From TrEMBL:
<dbReference type="InterPro" id="IPR001870">
    <property type="entry name" value="B30.2/SPRY"/>
</dbReference>
<dbReference type="InterPro" id="IPR043136">
    <property type="entry name" value="B30.2/SPRY_sf"/>
</dbReference>
<feature type="domain" description="B30.2/SPRY">
    <location>
        <begin position="1"/>
        <end position="200"/>
    </location>
</feature>
<dbReference type="InterPro" id="IPR013320">
    <property type="entry name" value="ConA-like_dom_sf"/>
</dbReference>
<protein>
    <recommendedName>
        <fullName>B30.2/SPRY domain-containing protein</fullName>
    </recommendedName>
</protein>
<dbReference type="InterPro" id="IPR044736">
    <property type="entry name" value="Gid1/RanBPM/SPLA_SPRY"/>
</dbReference>
């Protein structure tokens, strides 16, 4: 059965330092900007596993004099009082002490996020490490930023005001369910999400470009495979079936 795509923020996956509007698309910060009081909220549903591409946007509101908004993707057990892309080893998700349990818990807390105030990219890997690196672009009040996931490639991408920003980013292991996330951490912070479009970013054109690139890469491998097939009888037909399946697979994108 096909999974439904996210449509709004989740009341049950909302930090006590965040307040959702009635439409569950707008979110407002309700903390004091202290350590451990981020206002993080996750989408109502995980990214559909059958989709090849998922994308959402947030528009940052004009609230206080400073804004500390972040956008990204996280695992199901992310600590909602922490910024996406960071994990805490002392959070509830780390209580599984069975063999392999800690690794599973960290993976489900893992995430990737872009923070607007300083343009840093935060990546919480499956070993529990938190790393912030220079992503370049900053964003703030009045900007619309987006985050997407190419599911088959396991790569994330970010946009700002309709344009692709930075390079595609490998995503850390996040467990079975991956959620869209937004975090606010300054008085007056406000953001409004869009999960179903229309988007500022031309998602369809981007997806088509990735599809063409995948097909082109597949085509460049075929001559080598054909030579191998002549040396190994019976491999040509098998390669053709696999290649055709890959080409067909690149076209199965769910545009949300």
């Amino acid at each position: 059965m096909a999974q439904e795509a996210p449509s709004h923020w989740s009341v049950g996956k909302c930090s006590p330092f965040a307040r959702l509007d009635c439409d569950r698309l707008g979110v407002r910060y309700a903390g004091r900007s202290g350590l451990g009081d981020c206002g993080t909220v996750l989408a109502d549903r995980p990214v559909p596993r059958q989709c090849a591409a998922f994308y959402f946007e947030i528009t940052v509101g004009r609230g206080g004099p400073h804004t500390r908004a972040s956008i990204g993707l996280v695992g199901a057990a992310h600590d909602l009082c922490r910024q996406p892309g960071t994990v805490s080893r002392t959070s509830a998700g780390m209580r599984d002490t069975s063999v392999g349990g800690a690794a599973r818990a960290i993976a489900s807390q893992a995430g990737l996020a872009w923070r607007g105030v300083d343009g840093l990219l935060f990546r919480a890997d499956d070993d529990g490490s938190n790393a912030g690196s220079d992503f370049g672009a900053r964003f703030g009040p009045g900007d619309t930023v987006g985050c997407g996931l190419l599911v088959a490639e396991r790569r994330a991408f970010f946009t700002k005001n309709g344009a692709l920003t930075g390079d595609l980013q490998p995503v850390p292991p996040m467990g079975a369910d991956v959620f869209a996330a937004c975090s606010l951490h300054a008085p007056g912070d406000f953001a409004k999400a869009c999960f179903s479009g229309p988007f500022q970013f031309d998602l369809a054109s981007f997806v088509e470009a990735r599809r063409r690139l995948a097909v082109a890469r597949l085509a460049t491998r075929r001559p080598t495979a054909s030579k191998t097939a002549r040396a190994l009888p019976g491999t040509s037909r098998r390669f053709g079936r696999v290649g055709g399946a890959l080409e067909r697979g690149t076209g199965r994108y769910c545009l949300h």
